[in-house]
Design a protein that fits this description.
DNA-binding, globular, four-stranded antiparallel beta sheet, 11 strands, alpha+beta, homodimer
DNA sequence: CGGGTCATTGAGCGTTATCAACAGCAGTGG
DNA sequence: CCACTGCTGTTGATAACGCTCAATGACCCG
């Protein structure tokens, strides 16, 4: 039992899901079992292809992925990032086709999550996870529509921090940013040159330290207040 | 029976839902019954308030609404528009809180749709409707992130046409745009002045005719091709 | 007729894009 | 071991797209 607990503590996906909603022991056991059958994916693998059928749901155990929309003329928009504990391809339609591609950004570990309907508390966790996904999509629309370059970047970095903290993998307001500045640019509707300059600004004012893809906030709360940014909530009991 | 058919034909919400997926007769009957108990809302009514609990699902029978995110400093982002046949507040969580406000833009008619679980084909329609909602959110992110002012506006107008046509209420590529140029601006992350100028451009090149909120496309397909825009699809059997 | 909202137009400016060059670093093959 | 290549990050100079501010006109409604 203490071995199971230790195992759970080191598994970001389980940490996240069990923080979304109280999971009963059976649900946790089912998760722990599911998590043992891992598949791996190298960076750059298409986990879901736009316009194609969605195979089955997957739970991210380790690594980052991105949801990408490619335009005919070469432009691309990164819709969102997918982190450990996030579910992908979780749709209730049998014949669903994907509206965007999902690509791994790093080496990843994935597993097939316990089926819907087998554990009520887990079903709720899936539902809440989807609600978060939608809430973050709304946040992304707002970022792109209303915020300037500095605000967009800061807001995105704070969102990533918030999400990684939920999965318990951003100790001391610090984490590894696996994407290039160009990817950040394609996420925020800016150019990589401008992302670079905006990062310089944030460094100059000591808001962040970023070196070799390692990001650390000087003080995330201060930055949050400066942006009037509040953590995303989707449930009254969250 | 022919009376029921005639009724159904003139009900955009039923048209839309039954075009999402083949509805069996019982489902149609339940819908027809639900549709008889209408509630009304004047323009400017908050149907759902950000940060508050979501009461119950509603089906839009007539009129337009907007999903809005208000920032602390007065900026606002219109996330999406909601049209006849769209469902609002359709979430599976019991304790869900809204991540954005929904406001009526025109006089509206709404009803409570048949509960989930009572008609399988209707449940599927709800699911597909949600999938569309998400797909349009992805489209909105892409618009804001990658398209310039002209493309954003054209793309939005074509999306609205596509959706109204699905509900059978945009004959001859023509419909009423109920929102002000300022609202369009807040949707597309531009200023109303620039929306105005972009509309002038579209008029000058005879892409659209817009007068007194009445919009007509000269040739929607030509415009679509110019933008490389394809109708949104979410299902293999759509 | 007055007041309000919305659409329209002009002038000037600022944020961000574009273009270009270079440095650092990892991997690769001679 | 060292060119060589490719990718990423960095910096400078210039340009453009869309913003701001301001004024005016059209229309509706009380």
């Amino acid at each position: 039992m203490s071995a199971a607990l230790a195992f759970e503590i080191r598994e970001p996906a389980i940490t996240r899901l069990s923080r979304l909603i109280r999971l009963d022991p059976q649900a946790k056991a089912a998760l722990a079992e599911a998590v043992r059958h891992r598949t791996h994916a190298p960076p750059g693998r298409e986990l879901i292809a736009e316009g194609h059928a969605i195979r089955g749901p997957q739970l991210i155990l380790q690594g980052w992925a991105a949801r990408v929309r490619q335009l005919a003329d070469g432009r691309r928009q990164i819709i969102s990032f997918l982190l450990p504990g996030d579910l992908i391809g979780l749709c209730d339609q049998p014949e669903a086709i994907a509206t965007s591609t999902i690509v791994s950004l790093t080496d990843m570990q994935l597993c097939v999550p316990p089926k819907r309907g087998s554990h009520p508390s887990l079903d709720k966790a899936y539902t809440i996870s989807r609600a978060f996904e939608e809430a973050y999509l709304v946040a992304q629309v707002t970022r792109l529509g209303q915020l300037d370059a500095y605000e967009r970047l800061a807001d995105l970095l704070l969102e990533l921090l918030e999400r990684l903290q939920l999965a318990g993998i951003a100790p001391e307001e610090r984490f590894t940013l696996p994407m290039t500045q160009e990817m950040i640019a394609d996420t925020l509707g800016l150019t990589s040159v401008h992302i670079n300059r905006t990062l310089q600004t944030m460094r100059r004012e000591n808001s962040i330290v970023l070196k070799n893809r390692e990001l650390r906030f000087a003080d995330a709360d201060t930055l949050r207040r400066a942006l009037d940014r509040y953590p995303v909530r989707v449930s009254a009991c969250g």
